[in-house]
What we know:
8-stranded mixed beta sheet, 10 helices
Amino acid sequence: MKKACFLFLILSLVFSCRKNEKLINPKAQVQTNLSLPNDSGQSKFSIIIHGGAGTIMKKYMTPEKEAAYRQKLEEAIRIGHAILKNGGTSLDAVEKTINVLENSPLFNAGKGAVFTHEGTNEHDASIMDGKTLNAGASAGTSIVKNPITLARAIMEDSPHVMLSGSGAESFAQEQGLAIVDPHYFYTEKRYQALQKLKDKAISKSEFNIKDSFYNRDINDSKFGTVGCVALDKHGNLAAGTSTGGMTDKRWGRIGDSPIIGAGTYANNNTCAVSCTGWGEFFIRGVVAYDISALMEYKELTVQEATKEVIQSKLTKLGGTGGVIAIDKNGNLAMEFNTDGMYRATMNDKDDLYIGLYKN
Ligand code: ASP
């Protein structure tokens, strides 16, 4: 009898602990609805990437430069597409695709990150799982080779959503992620862009730092953030964004890219979104979540929602940039109010599209 009572006590303790764990664990799994398979009975899949928005115009391009961008965008999207085609997860597709762009000096993320006012490189990144609404983000790291991989590790292997600076770097080291000397991120092109911007500010006698920052041309800031959104065969959406931020940023400035809801968002009930552009405006407009909210509460399509938020709301606010988004049925949207946005899409029929300019 005593034994039975003891067993009952232990069982009820275990049961109540598990229940409490669900209540107190900030990252407890939330199961959202999965998308339905398409007519053929097999789920659709698709992927979109961006490599930043800005003054991307044919007249500023050489054929070699354009070919290099196209080639890298294609290489990256094919990595993610192959993962999805083989039945892999949208999270894997997003991370591995972004890794390719982070390892290229062409984009403002990872290797090609822009410089801070002090001449350093500080990376921001985030990733979100539309199935569970789990998310991970890192801000202001300088030695982690692939910030999107760190963001994913934070999501999966830490009890937190966002880590920053030296703490995030210690976590990356503990996780055995690739660590590099800060000099790895030096590229002459980005360094010269910083010098140019500083010279311009001095020649204009811009002593009001706030005005000088807001008066700059979008192209001065050398946008080039990278992002990826994907829908896998299991009906799960994921989104990720990685950036070096803005040239000449100061005081540990953090943009929208690592902020869930501003630069990145994913929810299986609505869509997956990754943003690029002037981060301050994307934070104030809560752009990524706003697109999802318009779909959830106003039943807008993904194209209608992205258009409304970028062409109306963001533009009225004075912000510039763009977004990529996929809905739970694989519908794609790419919207920007700049002259161009590096972008590519692939679907389950292997159709590849690569775009740089407006039309
Ligand atoms: N949104 C990024 C930031 O403000 C920059 C970019 O997308 O180019 O940090």
